[in-house]
Design brief:
- It is built from six helices and six strands, in the order αββαββααββαα.
- The protein is mostly helical.
- A hairpin with a 4-residue loop joins β5 and β6.
- α2 runs antiparallel to α4.
- It is globular and about 55 Å long.
Length: about 180
């Protein structure tokens, strides 16, 4: 027996086809539950959409609308991380929403567009036509997409804040210059 060897595995509990395997593993091994860590995104803002607050609101709507298993169906932070850091680029954010989050919510709701609309908001879902408004993703400007994503929770919008790599780098450079004591004459 090796004392310094750890086996780490992950398990998606929303797949009911492996329920018996889940029970068998839980009888034999210890488990540590990892839930969403909103604090990772407390300074990540896309055109006024604060990622931490928006994810918290989205997960609350999932829990409210889906039912018993909803706690295990919440959107995790790993979707919005790249190399252990929050994504900052608008195009990556749009891609994650379009290719990961929306299909996941559609699956949770079994194609019930009224329910999808309750979770994602009327700005994203056209209940009458039973479709997602993918035209929101077809432009480089994400302001309409952000407005649509914030439609169920408009009070969390942060006015005047945009997360861009260049701005963050400029802020970091200014702080570093002032901390180093270097003065340009």
């Amino acid at each position: 027996m090796l004392e310094n060897v750890y086996i780490v595995g992950t398990m998606n509990t929303d797949d009911r086809s492996i329920a018996l395997l889940d029970v068998a593993l839980r009888r034999r091994f210890g488990f540590i539950e990892l839930m969403m860590n909103y604090a990772l995104f407390d300074k990540t803002v896309f055109e006024g959409l604060p990622l931490d607050k928006w994810l918290k609101e989205l997960n609350a709507r999932i829990c409210e609308c889906i039912g018993t298993d909803a706690r295990n169906l919440q959107i995790g932070h790993s979707y919005f991380l790249e190399k252990e850091k929050p994504i900052m680029e608008n195009e990556k954010f749009k891609r994650i929403i379009r290719e990961d989050i929306i299909p996941l919510i559609e699956e949770y709701c079994y194609g019930d567009y009224a329910l999808i609309s309750k979770i994602l908001g009327e700005g994203i879902v056209d209940v009458k036509k039973q479709t997602i408004r993918f035209e929101l993703f077809n432009t480089s400007d994400i302001s309409d997409l952000v407005t649509a994503l914030l439609s169920p929770c408009p009070t969390i919008r942060e006015v005047g804040k945009v997360a861009e790599d260049d701005e963050i780098e400029e802020e970091t450079e200014k702080v570093n210059e002032s901390d180093s004591g270097d003065k340009i004459s």
